[in-house]
């Protein structure tokens, strides 16, 4: 009986180990990044925000528990941020101020995955962003678009001391993988962390669409 139980236990462990798979990979793609500014911080007459079109690149590790569930961790770099376009007035002088903010961010996304089919999966998780650098570039147009009246500020103004380091962004995503290891994925990261050390709240959300390759297994 003991020998039979031992054989059964070894068989179950073998099936369990066979059902698990660990794969490593690399990925890169396009990021559509936006900054949301709390209205309480807006003391100008009009204000709008525009997205920054940028990129991301990095590596990943995926571990599957059977055919349906898995977890994935990643290490990515992306220069996130956004643009602000403001119309303002001072002493009856009207001007337009364009500002571009760039957060050089190290992203650590962690997610749980559900495999709808062998090739198609959805993921739910959170991206923990560490802001390594923060730059700002401002252009002031005193003539509201009149050529020759633009006054450009410093190319790279360091604002790292004014920015909080951690940017937490829960995300929902989907992935389609081919049998040769190539995959395509997309996810939306909703920023919830206040990145401003001053009054008012500033958040950074971003959409990622990319391609990658996974290799290895078991």
From TrEMBL:
InterPro entries: Beta-barrel_OMP_2 (IPR025665), OMP/PagP_B-barrel (IPR011250). SUPFAM superfamilies: OMPA-like. Transmembrane segments: none annotated. Keywords: Signal. Residues 18-195 form the Outer membrane protein beta-barrel domain. Residues 1-19 form the signal peptide. This is Porin family protein. It comes from Chryseobacterium camelliae. The lineage of its organism: Bacteria, Pseudomonadati, Bacteroidota, Flavobacteriia, Flavobacteriales.
């Amino acid at each position: 009986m003991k020998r039979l139980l031992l054989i059964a236990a070894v068989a179950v462990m073998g099936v369990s180990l066979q059902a698990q798979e660990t794969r490593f990979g690399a990925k890169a793609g396009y990021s559509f990044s936006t900054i949301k500014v709390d209205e309480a911080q807006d003391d100008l007459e009009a204000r709008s925000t525009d997205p920054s079109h940028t990129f991301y690149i990095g590596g990943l590790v995926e571990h599957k528990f059977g055919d349906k569930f898995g977890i994935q961790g990643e290490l990515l770099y992306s220069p996130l941020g956004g643009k602000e376009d403001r119309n303002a007035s001072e002493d009856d002088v009207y001007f337009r101020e364009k500002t571009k903010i760039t957060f050089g961010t190290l992203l650590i996304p962690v997610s749980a995955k559900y495999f709808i089919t062998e090739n198609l999966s959805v993921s739910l998780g959170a991206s923990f962003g560490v802001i390594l650098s923060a730059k700002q570039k401002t252009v002031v147009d005193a003539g509201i678009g009149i050529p020759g009246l633009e006054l450009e500020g410093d190319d790279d103004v360091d604002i790292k001391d004014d920015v909080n380091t951690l940017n937490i962004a829960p995300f929902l995503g989907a992935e389609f993988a081919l049998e040769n290891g190539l995959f395509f994925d997309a996810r939306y990261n909703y920023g919830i962390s206040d990145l401003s050390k001053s009054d008012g709240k500033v958040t950074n959300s971003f959409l990622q669409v990319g391609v990658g390759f996974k290799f290895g297994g078991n």
